[in-house]
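Researcher: Next sequence.
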Amino acid sequence: MMKVIDLINQSKSTAFSFEILPPLRGNSIQKVYNVIDKLREFDPKYINITSHHSEFIYKPMADGSFQKVNIRKRPGSVAIASAIQNKYGIPAVPHIICKGFTKDETEYALIDLNFLGVYNLLLLRGDVKTLEAQQPPEMYHEHATDLQQQVNRFNEGFLLDGSRMEGIETPFSYGMACYPEKHEEAPNFDSDIFYLKEKVRNGADYLVTQMFFDNSKYFAFVERCRAEGITVPIIPGIKPIVFRNQLTVLPRVFRSEIPEAFAAELRKCKTDDDAREVGIEWSIQQCKELIAHGVPSLHFYTMMASESVRRIAKEIY
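Model: Next structure:
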């Protein structure tokens, strides 16, 4: 399988890619295939698979106490990535996250992925709230740059205990995340840029943005990155709005500002169907402007929005 960075660089036009969510436990992988089948005609260069940590419930016992039970609600992205590559021949890009997965669990995932021929990764910090308070913090990576060092060492043939591992036929290539509107925990934008430069200096082949709705923020961000010597592709992350409540939910959860022109149209919507149509039209215009500015690729977040993504892609590809 080719590296994502090579697929992007060799594409004669703006490349297309998208992200999928593993199905809930008990559901068939056919749900994933249905999304891919819907979007395959637009020649996706790669498909990202999100990672989700195990979740815990507290089960009441007969004596009135509670027992913590680990519930894994979704199959791992290792299995999904391998299935996608084998069925479609499209490079799969599993997300590897810091929080919710220990360093050892990350190592097992890297061994399995390398064995299965999945050589592209997206390295992310993940939701900080996923870390279990009862677990020693040293079991986990604190930042994506720490996770990056583990992957780099693995690529050199070293395991966590310092021992050598033979048989790494192809080292991992990876992208990392960036935030046109600043990461919510960064004290300032300069700090964000500092760590972004570290990610690239230490081996990130490309960057994928958090969702944004205002292209001017993306353009200003890219300009700032270039001025700071960051030359890797910066891929816009596009999220079509499909529900009315996302007008307030997305800015709160993802710190992504919704421009007033877009917000005003969403406020007029009486139903989610209305909001979906407004979201599709906004994304179409957003993507057309990005393509006109020569972005290397567009990356779509399809969660609950695969049909919207299909309609948008139909207009721009």
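Model: Residues 71-75 have pLDDT under 50 and may be disordered. The two ends are 24 Å apart (CA to CA).
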